[in-house]
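Many introductory courses stop at the sequence. We go one step further.
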Amino acid sequence: MSFEWPVALVALVLVPLLVAAYARHERRRMSDAARFANPGLLPNLVDARPGWRRHLPLAVLFVALVGMIVGVARPHATVSVPREEATVMIAIDASLSMRATDVKPSRLAVAQAAARAFVAKVPKKFRIGLVSFSARPYVILPPTQDRGLAAQALASIRSGEGTALGDAVKLAVQVGRRQRAGDGSIPPATLLVISDGAQMSGRTTPQAAAELARSRHVPVYAIVLGTPNGVVEVTLTGGFKEQIRVPPRADILQQVARTSGGEVFTATNDSGLRKVYERLASRLGHRRQSREVTDLFAGGSAALLLFGGALSALWFRRVP
């Protein structure tokens, strides 16, 4: 929390001084009372002492005073507010390893289904762009607000050989930063990569692509899809079959995300992946903004003053 007029906080020194003055007054009052009466006889004169209730209204007053002083300093807090415009690029790995069925029905099929659910949760004003990559990356959907086109583009993805992860990140970042908002400014862009993490081909290394994303202020969020037991079957010459182990490479995606300022998530099944998308949709749909919260402190102080006054009136009302 920050303050527009922090010098006003110096007045907070008055609060402990007032508390000390009140405590001194109470001690003096009890001492003066003891001079004129025997404290042991008090139970015969009054039904019961108010005890802690005597001090509570004043304690509430002191808290309200603190709130008013802080309000005068015009505090600002960082709060989460909905984004008006943004571009979300989604890069989906369509390489041979995504045919693995360790995530049912396959890594690629689950990625497509969960991506559709994610697109449905992203704010309608956001543009969605899609990149599919195997040996080369392809823009299968330029950024658009049309969710129907996004669903069609996701359904059109087919697997191939090779994994140009670095090239895909680079292309998605470049496309995302070309967009313009209604006022001509460049809206914030975010890249979501769904992959099992391998880099098998391409001209751009994942590290170089991540550094580009950082320089363009595009955080890369990555979802590592698959389990260590993933296997794909390929047909060799002569019709022979070969099984190839394709464990996910989380380390590569972690490096990309960490360098660019994003985060890595792991999902080993369809329900886990959907939960990741829900978290991301909520995070991308909001931004952190500094906002003055003087009204909260003023309102809270007023409520405390009313509460303290009500307690005093109810507990210590005098009967004429």
